Amino acid sequence: RRDFAIMLAQSLGHSNDELATSPFKDVADDDYGVSSIAYLYEQGITAGDDKGNFNPDANITRQEAAIFLARAFEATGTTSETFTDDAKIASWAKEYVYACKAAGIFNGDEKGNFNPTSTLTRAEAASIMVNALNK
Asked: Which distant-in-sequence residues (6+ apart) come within 8 Å of 30 by Cβ?
């Protein structure tokens, strides 16, 4: 999650070299990603979990990434075309997943699945950042 936050913040023009105070209990002020994580928090792109944690060392799922991306790139559209595995997408993530789909940021796999709980790979992260920046 930390590396995704850094990548996203930098794609938005933020330098990860800036000093910052962590808004999360589990991210130290000297963490190498604190500047980007704090920036995303200040921009309303991430809010952390219900315990005040960011979980920087955890993998980010595709549906979690969709939330970050929809907020970061102000994707608010929707589409009537659903993913084949729509029932597996968490209710708290659906509007963001479909906003990203409508914006052309996220696509499904060859079977039309979104795979919401799958870990986002670095290659996928790079691809969706390019898609988002080109919209």
From this structure: none
3-state secondary structure of 120: coil
Contact present, 57 and 1 (Cβ < 8 Å):
yes
> pLDDT digits over 52-110, tens only?
999 999 999 999 999 999 999 999 899 999 999 999 999 999 999 999 999 999 988 99
String of DSSP letters for 1-23? -HHHHHHHHHHTT--TTS----S
Q: Is the pTM of this model over 0.90?
A: yes
Task: Give the integer Cα–Cα distance in Å for 103 and 125.
Answer: 16
Which segments of 28-117 does DSSP mark as H helices, in order? 34-42, 62-72, 94-103
**Three-state secondary-structure class, residue 57:** coil
The residues, ordered by sequence, that sit 6+ positions from 69 with a Cβ below 8 Å of its Cβ are: 8, 75, 96, 100, 105, 106, 128, 132
